[in-house]
User: What shape does this take?
Amino acid sequence: MNTANTMSHDGDQINAGALIGRPDLSDDVLLDALRQRLRARQRPETEAEGILAAATMRDEAALALMQTLSVPAPVAHLSMPTQRLTGRSQRRWLTLPAINVSWSRG
Amino acid sequence: MIAVKRLVFALASIVLAVIAAALFFVVVTVNGVTYLHILQISLLLLCCFWLAWGFNTALAGIVLRSRAPRSMPTSWRGDSRTAVLVPVYNEDAHAVIARVGAMIEGLRKTGRLAPFDFHVLSDSTNPANVEQERRAFDILLSELGVAGHLYYRHREKNVGRKAGNIADFVTTSGGAYDYMLILDADSLMRPETMSEMVARMDADPELALLQTQPLIIGRRTLFGRALQFSAALFSPIFSRGIAALQGREGPFWGHNAIIRVRAFAACCGLPNLKGKPPFGGHILSHDSVEAALLSRAGYKVRVDPDLGGSYEEAPSNLIEYAKRDRRWCQGNLQHSRLVVAPGLKLWSRISLLAGIMAYVASPIWLMFLIVSLLDPVLAPEPNYFPAGSLFPVFPRPETNKALLLLFGIFVLLLLPKTLITLGSALTRRSGKFGGSGRVIAGALAELVMTSILAPVMMMFQSKAVGEILIGADAGWPATDREDGSLPLGTAWRASWWMVLAGAIVLFATEEYAPDLIAWTLPIAIPLVAAPLLITMSGSPALGDWFRRIGLFATPFETDPELVIRDAAVWRQRLAALDRTPGPQNATISDASVVPDPA
Assistant: This one.
């Protein structure tokens, strides 16, 4: 989603995703979300492109509708390396026979 | 300095326990020492050590004041981004989303929404719950118009339970944020507190985790309101005690805490433990382990008790409480495999052990009681003519020492709460609870109620420990926090075995040691009456009556702050806007999820 589209109006480059604080979103993603919202409000999905264009021209009604869109969460991967929590020292510690019974299960 | 404080704390606990055990030794061995006495004294030593540990924590909270970090100026504006995570698991979606709505609205009103994004992370397994969550989310998004600040995600497979849910977020979206503020489905937080937490994280790059002290709100039943009152009155002081000794290895209670995302990702990838549950598999009580891992990596983990406006709900009856306890008990006992994990700081290990002891203490008390009841039955007759003496030698009376021991145990049990109650009743703090009289009356009523319910709790916890030791897994039942009434039949199914145990104790004592009957009544009577106690304490009507007479009033009930009021308004609003019927709540009435020995 980092390949955000831009829309051109009167020579200005406007990122539609930036209207909702998500410049990383492409127009296709926004249009999908718009269609979903229109469907929920029982309006024709074909209005989506027009509304997106109107929003980039700061049309208040279109901007208000844009603010209700359910868009995907930002994607920015982090790795979580598995930590070492058990080791040899644990076995040395497990010397209580009563507890060994339960810990050796499975 | 912190090392000295901790050393004094630990030594004081040991000394108190040894004094109690020594007194007990003198009292019980007056006719000679048996193996049963050795066992009895060892069990009492452990029990008193744990009592003294709690006593000293409270005393540290009363006496020691950790320096609260300076608050950021109200004009502070950081550029860090924070994800507010709300994990959901088959909870009431309207209630969960209403709380999210109240927090977003509050942040927007204070002009601080921009750096916060809310993520509802659903692990729900019931399709009806998932549908209700989606609808409620959609309504809230539509009503508030906060696209780009509110997200919903549902996992089809809830691998790793809640820890897996958070890990899934971190690995997918974590890189977009500096911090994540982890909430529970029942959490609620004052917007100013959320901003303050971010500011404190910004101010200290070494701080990886900042925990708040969540207080209980929204309870209606007698049990829930007593819990709520107790938490409001006592918890802030207890957490000050924990804070006074935390150093860089503070606690993490799983929610209502903010975490540096990259530090968490680098240090907190949890392994699956070898073997099957309950001791193997996923790490259930992941929070303490994550705190220990962050400390191991050199980061600071801290609880700041001065951070107010942090709330949660709690089970509204004993059965739900026991269900949650069963899960936590399994998680904490699983830590017995992790206490010796390589590289952990000593205080982290001690915290893990304290978590284990919180549950193991109950069966130790139970064993102590059983051994104490067996003692007069199995004890040898006094020997009045030792070593062929012509004249009788009478045992020395040790009544004074016995009374001293009893007094000491009562001091350990009651003094911290008494001091906190008086400290609150005699200061301006009492005003928040409706006045000095209500603080004292509430604390007394809470003491009576917890004393009556203590044997029932002891039995539930002992059963939980027993089940885990024989290898039974708790699974992952959702916690029901709704204030529904609890039928007597349900309470009976959950506690008939306690009735049986209480009756056996009464019969056996009357038969074999009638002199001890008065001592057994405070334990046996609540056990025999367990179903009735569970039903009565879980009654919303009784809770309402206590509320009407002003007992167990808390500041958040008498004068709830804006975010609490807003959450209630949002809940009504969502219910009005979402006309589709929600899922039936089956957790209380369904006996299959009730703790039962079968």
Q: What stands out?
A: The helical segments of chain A are 27-40, 48-56, 60-66, 88-93, 97-103.
